[in-house]
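DM from R.C. (forwarded with permission)

"hey, sorry to bug you on a friday — could you get me a structure for this? deadline for the figure draft is monday and I only need the backbone to look sensible"
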Amino acid sequence: MQHQNTAANAWAAAADVREYLARGGALPTVHSPVPLDADEHAVAVLNHHTGSAFHYERYLCAEVTVPTPGPTVIVGPPAFVAGAVAMNALRRARAQHQAQAAAAWQWRPSPVMGVTLTTKRLWVHPYGTERRHFTFDSITGLWLHDSSMTLEFAQVAAMRLTGAAVPWLAVVIEHYHRCAGFGPAHFGWSNAAAG
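My reply, with the result:
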């Protein structure tokens, strides 16, 4: 029950900010932990210190190395050699299958400390790596389902962000994308908590 209340509150906050922005409201500027362009302003810095937790993923393939299990030279009686060759073939086939599955395109999670939302882009702050930013002008699709947002881009891999504040973020991203006239993008919304 608590999860539904949290989800309902997140969607209510998203609806409120959507209405506020549609009436011409402007979000206040906040201090930015990331470098900004001269005409860019930070409007939200969300992390565990502000009570926001996120799960971040990219839709990527991966390079993998296929191990070569078993000996490469087999010595012994013919029956033993035939059995060993058959076992090695099975092991190699299994290793190849596992490697192909690991290399396939899939959602790959990365721990994230938080996000910064500006008037031009969404910054993601993964643990242990450099910050990544996704500019609104490169968005070709934004799909929001409950508290999970998938952003699709023309030139880079899709990203997915999940967390209680995500519906609010999605509404603000859509607003800045449309107001800047960045061109066509598909936006989709669904909320199981509302219905």
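R.C.: lifesaver. Residues 62-104 form one domain.
me: no worries. The two ends are 14 Å apart (CA to CA).
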